[in-house]
Amino acid sequence: MRKKFTEKQIHILDIAEELIAKKGYEGTSVRDICSKANINVAMISYYFGSKEKMMSYLYQYRVLKTRENFSEFADTIKEGKPEMQMKEIIKYIVSQLFKYNYFHGFVTQELRHTENLKDELLDFYQLFVKKLDEVIKKGVASGVFTFTPKPEDILTTIIGSTLFVIRNKNFYELYVPNKNEETYVKEAEKKVRMNLLLSVFAILGYAAD
Amino acid sequence: MRKKFTEKQIHILDIAEELIAKKGYEGTSVRDICSKANINVAMISYYFGSKEKMMSYLYQYRVLKTRENFSEFADTIKEGKPEMQMKEIIKYIVSQLFKYNYFHGFVTQELRHTENLKDELLDFYQLFVKKLDEVIKKGVASGVFTFTPKPEDILTTIIGSTLFVIRNKNFYELYVPNKNEETYVKEAEKKVRMNLLLSVFAILGYAAD
Amino acid sequence: MRKKFTEKQIHILDIAEELIAKKGYEGTSVRDICSKANINVAMISYYFGSKEKMMSYLYQYRVLKTRENFSEFADTIKEGKPEMQMKEIIKYIVSQLFKYNYFHGFVTQELRHTENLKDELLDFYQLFVKKLDEVIKKGVASGVFTFTPKPEDILTTIIGSTLFVIRNKNFYELYVPNKNEETYVKEAEKKVRMNLLLSVFAILGYAAD
Amino acid sequence: MRKKFTEKQIHILDIAEELIAKKGYEGTSVRDICSKANINVAMISYYFGSKEKMMSYLYQYRVLKTRENFSEFADTIKEGKPEMQMKEIIKYIVSQLFKYNYFHGFVTQELRHTENLKDELLDFYQLFVKKLDEVIKKGVASGVFTFTPKPEDILTTIIGSTLFVIRNKNFYELYVPNKNEETYVKEAEKKVRMNLLLSVFAILGYAAD
DNA sequence: AATGAATGAGCGTTCATTCAT
DNA sequence: CATGAATGAACGCTCATTCAT
């Protein structure tokens, strides 16, 4: 059920995503979205069929974009050494979660409304697992990694830790040096990335020389 | 503003928590809760003043219980060696999150409704950070730990990873051997706990003999 | 359907009257009344059967008292000259309306709820009409009054003017010299009384010598 | 905050006014109004924002119309003799109160809901007082009136008496010859008008030749 | 292709009243 | 005799959606 969206539709989806990530699906009324998007209240039903279908389209749209993005990324690290690849994967996941935190925010919160779509996200996660598995095995084979942790556990740690930081801003900011609103996000991202690098490479038994 | 609750009120809170964790605050109507609790629609206003106040009471009630529970737990590990203490802390946090996943589910999702109460959760997290800090320092001092990672990062990894597993059941269950509905939860909890033990001890540079 | 009331019941009726006169029948909840009377919410149904029946009892109670009161008053002027009697009647009606403005306030506002009871008020008004008729005829017979206006019109003017003043406080107070909250009511009562005396005696063609 | 209303809105306001005058603001539910107006329950909120705001608009609308109406009337009597002017004013006020008795019914009963709007009614009453004052003074100057009663007292008598008659139908109808429902109202209006003419001209010491 | 008016269902809450004690 | 817990109906209002244009 792929669909091409007009500019106007994408505009609506952007605003819907932001509001829903902030206030939840039920907490966000069609009127809220339309008012912020400067369109008529009837437009969401008109364009997408219903509020719920709009959610599906929004989800599809983002997953599609994300997959394309990941595809490109995967290409860029194809040639590197395992330790570099692992580092880049961590960096990529963390930055993507921070960048599209709106999306990832509502994915876990609001996916109950689009139960059948979860599969697409699942496929996407498995893509990561597969990639991590490759890298780990290659690293172990080449001797730079000592241990063989489960790739799904590595992914769990990376995504889980990052989302926790994003969602518990007022906890984590206690430990981030620069609390300036502008720079906080960057500092937080950096801190969680460093933590994950340390963590993951420790599990891998990475012997830096 | 502590409050004693009757059995009936606790019954309502239990059901409310479950539904809200599943379907969100706005997604759960007073009628849903009352219908499942076999009580009159007016009772929530009658007992708690309003739906919103019920949320506050629910939150208070759980945080209070959780703090008391943690207090007891902290006593039981007071005497042990750092490595044992760390192991027990991880085990404790993971098991608590699994046990009260309803609560932790709505805490991160629905806290916007009880903004002023967030501080209590913050205090609670800081309790953990403090405890972790003690254990890490003691372990480093006694030589069983080699490195000194930040306690807030350790906590982030533990809670983040566990919550991710809880909330992405149909991802994680792909990697859990026994998919029997009854045993799955236990297996999943065991798997994430093992992962975290490995992970945390690796970061600490724990030298097992 | 006469009824004897206990002190507690009278206490409730007093409070109910005040609140209903202020905020209307529907605007006053049973809870409001019970809360102000420091009694249980169930008491009004318990004592009076229902909120509506309470209204009936309240109405009966006040009309009864008022009739008794008027009876006494009628005795005191029995012996006087017509012009004195007329003066006293005006003074009496005005002062009673001011004194029991709570009651008269809700009588005209809330009588829609006790349609069948209007007869009692009607009887009461007719008592006044009869008395006024007597006085007018006596005065005409004795030559102190020149004209024979209809007694129901005299009553209409007296009650209508007084109630208008009571209910349009912020209009009439513009023309009352002393606006001090304490003395205003007395001044207003005095002013409307003087107006009515002038008015009624003018209609009667009273020739003061 | 003046507002133009559509025909549909005016239709709703008419029905709302009638019901509220009869049963009070709290006694009249939004459902009552909508049911009688054959519209959806949501329409009152949709058109006016809320039930309470509807009251304000209704009030504004009627006061505005009434002021315009009075303005026109004032023009028509500009040229006449004082005694003719006085007669016309009485006739006008009485007929207006009878015509718009719904409005005047709820104005005194329900103005607690639109506290801040009372001033507009006050202004309106003062317009009458001013006009009466002019007429009285002119009459006294030209010698047709002997006395100088206070204009606010004249207004009080006129409005008070008329409203009393309107609100105590089953009292006054005892004295109105033709009790036929159709003609009663006209007869009652006539009777109270005659009474007021007599009354007011007597107070003015009008010397008819 | 797009709108604004209008709808019916459902929301959280309050109501007068009843019930068990 | 009196209470406080509990009820079902109704409240004003907002919702996502549909309809007529």
From TrEMBL, chains A, B, C, D:
Keyword DNA-binding: yes
Pfam short name (any one): TetR_C_29
Domain HTH tetR-type: 6-66
InterPro entries reported for this sequence: DNA-bd_HTH_TetR-type_CS (IPR023772), Homeodomain-like_sf (IPR009057), HTH-type_TetR-like_transc_reg (IPR050109), HTH_TetR (IPR001647), NicS_C (IPR041474), Tet_transcr_reg_TetR-rel_C_sf (IPR036271)
DNA-binding feature ranges: 29-48
Gene Ontology terms for molecular function: DNA binding
Protein's organism: Chryseobacterium defluvii
Protein name: TetR family transcriptional regulator
Keywords: DNA-binding
